[in-house]
Amino acid sequence: MTSDAQPLKQTSSQRRRATEGPWATAWRKLRRDRAALFAFAVLIAIVLACASAPLYADYVSHTNPFVTNLNGEIEIDGQIRQVLEPSTEGLGLGMTPIGPTWRFGPYALGADNQGRDVAARLLYGGRNSLLIAGVAATLCLVLATFVGVVAGFFGGVVDMVLSRILDVLWAFPIFLLAISLSIVLIAQSIRIGPIEIRSGSLWLPIFIIGIVFVPYVARPIRGQVLTLMQAEFVTAAVGLGATPLRILLRDVLPNVVTRIIVFVPLMLALNMIIESALSFLSIGVQPPDASWGTIIQDGQGLLYSRPLVALAPGIAIVVTVLALNILGDGVRDALDPKSSFRVA
Amino acid sequence: MRTGKRLTALLSGALLLGASALPLAAQAQEGKMGGTLRLLAKAASGTIDPHINYTLQYFQINYILYDGLVTFRKVGDKTGFDVVADLAEALPEPQDGGRKYVFKLRDGIKFADGSDVTTEDVVASFQRIFKISGPTAGTFYNGIIGADKCLAEPAGCTLEGGVVADAAAGTVTFNLTQPDGEFLQKIAIPHAAILPAETELKDYGTDPIPGTGAYMIESYDPNKRLKMVRNPYFKEWSKEAQPAGYPDEIDYDFGLTEEAAVTAIQNGQADWMFDPPPPDRLAELGTTYASQVSLHPLTAMWYAPMNTNLAPFDDVRVRQAVNLAIDRNAVVKLFGGSNLAQPACQILPPGFPSYEPYCPYTADPGAKWTAPDLAKAKALIAESGTAGQEVTIISEDNVVSRAIGVYLQDVLNELGFKASVKPISQNIQFTYIQNTNNKVQISISQWFQDYPSPSNFLQVLFSCASFTPGSDASVNISGFCDESVDAMMAEAQAASISDPAKAAKIWTAVDKAVTDAAPAAVLFTPKRVDFISKRVQNFTFSPQFYWIISQSWIE
Q1: Which candidate, A98, A93, A95, A67, places its Cα nearest to that of A83?
Q2: N or C: which end of chain A has fewer CB within 10 A?
Q3: What does the pLDDT read at residue B7?
Q4: ipTM of model over 0.90
Q5: Which of 386-425 (B) contact A at CB < 8 A?
């Protein structure tokens, strides 16, 4: 009985595999990649933690992380301590923010030089960092896909013009552009269609990052489209009289999507690093709002006395970017195992 | 003037009695000649042309490189504010009711290139101030006869009738359009340094101009080092004006961060840093390295100028409300605590001529700031009907200025405004906030005295003449222009020679009038922290020059 039943089950499994689509195959492979799954779990945890920032500020730290608290006090072990403690030894120079309490409560990671709760700001900062990285990645991928597909599909003059534009973008120093825009925007805003970019607007880092990195994504996509255009199934479609639009939508785009998906985590990681750098240079998120970059900047003046102010967001960036890169590798292996490209 | 990198002002020092009181008091012992003094700064401070550079950083060294007809006494006590004869044989008595000064040049003084100092050099130097459009030509030296023509047409400047040389008698006569009780102080700063007559009419940038001081510049690379060596032609003619220096060489290195500079001094790899030590190192310096720290109150202020020509600060009630709402103790904490700054709410700093304690912007109005009065501030805002308006604060992008900007943002939000803060590079912030084209509403800035006179705060910062719309050099950042206050200033100036006591009283009244009009929110009076290496001896802090570099020696 048993020996009869086994072959039937194997046949069913084999049939399922034989008939499963590329997405199911990719998902199956991804599920077997423990490193990628762990990275994904870490990312989810980070996103959830950052999303809960308002709850943490209201119910755990009981502070407003966007308002200075220079005269604040806190009770620790029955003792009332000032959030900013004056030096009482020697010449009595300097004020030192309270250090980490290491408790699930106020000032778990200590205070910054404005007396604000670092842990709460870390969570709020993560929201901005992730938001900017996510929107910029989306903008970048949409633009890059459009440019890459059009250039590869139409070729000729269109390809040449778009490729040169990409060359210019690629050559442009991102931080010089960011600093220039930042200075211009102090006095006036920039309007792009319905969107008005003002000084301090999150759209500023989003646009800078989203546009400057278009060549990094568009070029590989263009290359893949050029390859696809020589594929037999495309030649067959042309021979059968399919319209260019149909070929584009039915034969080219579906084969490019996997590569775009592979780019998502990698671009997110890259964008997070750039966003942090821009914010550190006072170009991205503006005070009193926080991003991980601005918190590092706040901590720069406390490196000797309260290094955790700068270290905590630094660690958050490292962990997030590492997780995104591991996940990106896993997604790439699952969707496009033959590919070996890397971003930046 | 302002401190900092570009265009700031200088000298300060306050001297508030007992100013230093720290372990670095001058040691009355025989100094050691020789060795190399190693100074550090995060960055160079631009041109080394003494007629152009207007920074604290280079004013400090220009005093040992160049001389004027007069200078401030180089001592470490409050007499350091006194003007003494330098290239001139003696201080002249004002003549013609304070409109005329005759200086007799000392004999035998040479420039660092070996040429003699002549009366022709003096005339040419004052012409050059106008011909190159020096930063203080129109403010400090516009009272010289002929200055108006020079300001209108710099290239053809002769100062005819204003600066007259008599080579045979070795004298130079200055004729002024009206009495100026501060004239000697104005020509005691490096912008009035005497240079060789053949000095070209251009910004010398990194090329040294020969001077008469104890030292001369051997080389200058703004990205690396300013190297000063002994002037081979220097012979001490007046110890209180230009004393001979102790070190053979003074190297001013640029590029290290403040953190790295502190560490270098701790390790004995450098002797002093120009920039204030970073806040997170202060506690360490105040304890472990207390014997190497010198702390002095300055005649200076940190303040928040408010644009009196732009909403919402064109309403005096709003400006007063901001003054009332600011917790000066909180701001002092951001600067490093009460041992590094004192709360203030009037324009003139403590210990300054004509200073009388006055603070209307406190919970208990009187002589001293005690606490903010938020209720009264909110009532003024409600009365003005300006709540809800957007306000942008422009701060510098350094730690302290940005922190104060964020605090001020909280204050303005609390008052009902929609405030944002924009920190911009300190290299451009000071010029940016001066230019009315940038429509700056409120900013964070500092002011340090050029010379010890109330006019250097009140007239320079808040007179109609100091307000030049559309200019990067309009140091009246608030754009404050009140004819009645201007008239009081003019009256004080006029009385400065004939009745100094009366002039002093008028300046006190001007201080109160400007404080009441609240074109700015004065935040605190800072102190200067100098951190020096163990091998530096005889650290002498002048209220005017800060550390007199040439008077320290190396063990």
Answers
A1: A98
A2: N
A3: 39
A4: no
A5: 392, 394, 397, 399, 402-403, 405-407, 409-410, 420-424
